[in-house]
């Protein structure tokens, strides 16, 4: 057996001691910097912790401090990269699995220990000394105890460190996942953290004697459990996440049940939440509300929601597909072709990189890698078909009636009302207001870039609405002019029909018992110059006048009642 020289043993010992001193020094400096709660100092502390983890990659205190510092700096993506093995959807299968299956396996060790500690012991107490007997031997005192108490305290001491190592991971990662828009994962992680904290508190209280209680602070500088304020904030965040997920589930259920108006209401409640929504989660809600708007026939509203979703996440495949379908529905074929070509570029990038877009821990529930080749082939065929339609002259035949949401042959007030509502809602100046309601993390682009994208897409939609209003108003004015012309022609035809059915007047001129033909010309001219009476009772008037004046009264036989 080979022997190690004393000099080599001293060198190894010196190397280990020097590394331990460096690690302890870095940890002390990092804690002092983090205690200041200033962004620059916390960023410097992250650098020190990175150097500490180079010397000791599995040091639990350094890992916890680094994760909490990244969370304080709002570098949520770095937190997820650091603790991605604890993300439920990533553990199940890279985002393809469900959350419910993983929720029961997140804290197996913690649940086992909590069950072991909280379950009642069936073994009776074995008293080594009688309860009422005590004896003193100098300064020593012996008190009664049981084997079960000794075993229980021993198990608490063994499981304390394992729970301490796992508990902060779920709490910090749950908050990071919430800010990243992974609400289901955040809910499971925060529930697990709360369950582990409750189990740890029960074990701490059980492990102590009847008249003493332990605090949360650990003896080794770490934290045995989060402070109460952090647990309270995590509980409030968990309540908010549950409320948001219930609202979205109600919206999806209403849309599946054929109630798009109800789905729009629920999605709007989610998007107008007082607490800022993460950008990626808000983009998915905008896509869902766009589908509900399309089901109600409000295509302009649906296109506007797709524009907002794409300004938040330009590489969102569901948003691109939805907007391309909407443009094709209103026959805006050039815009549809542009979105489909962008979608083709994304599919090519996925096949080139052999992975879905984004980090590996982000879930893609409506997209699977094995479906990309078939989707790409169908997309290429659709692009070729659209190019053929545009070459045939269908590119400028936009259905503005469907875009604005009015019927064909609508009146002027209907068109003006619909146009006014859409214009007030989709002005380019108001298109960037939604950016202030959402929360954008470090994995998003600059806010100005998001605003510019939203303003540009809103300007395109606004120009389409103005052009559609002008086109439909021209058609409405032409219809009104044609209606007036038809009314005039109908009136003229009625007058012509009345004149065609008129009969020549029959007059009997009696003057002194002689007819006009045989009488004097003076009597005939006087009878001809006499005014002609026209009315309902013209015959009676003529008869009465003839009897009274003994002279003929000229009468027009029109519209007689008898």
Give a written overview of the molecule.
The structure is a single chain. With 562 residues, the protein is mostly helical. The chain is built from 21 helices and 6 strands. It has helices spanning 6-35, 39-55, 60-72, 76-82, 88-93, 100-103, 108-118, 147-179, 183-207, 228-256, 260-271, 279-296, 299-312, 317-329, 333-353, 372-394, 400-404, 412-425, 447-500, 521-529, 538-549; strands spanning 135-137, 140-142, 277-278, 438-439, 510-511, 514-515. The strands form 3 sheets. A two-stranded antiparallel sheet has the order 1-2. Helix 11 (260-271) runs antiparallel to helix 12. The relative contact order is 0.06. Mean pLDDT is 76; it is low at 1-13, 94-145, 154-162, 211-224 and 509-538.
Draw up the topology in text.
Elements: H1 6-35, H2 39-55, H3 60-72, H4 76-82, H5 88-93, H6 100-103, H7 108-118, E1 135-137, E2 140-142, H8 147-179, H9 183-207, H10 228-256, H11 260-271, E3 277-278, H12 279-296, H13 299-312, H14 317-329, H15 333-353, H16 372-394, H17 400-404, H18 412-425, E4 438-439, H19 447-500, E5 510-511, E6 514-515, H20 521-529, H21 538-549
Parallel strand pairs: 3-4
Antiparallel strand pairs: 1-2, 5-6
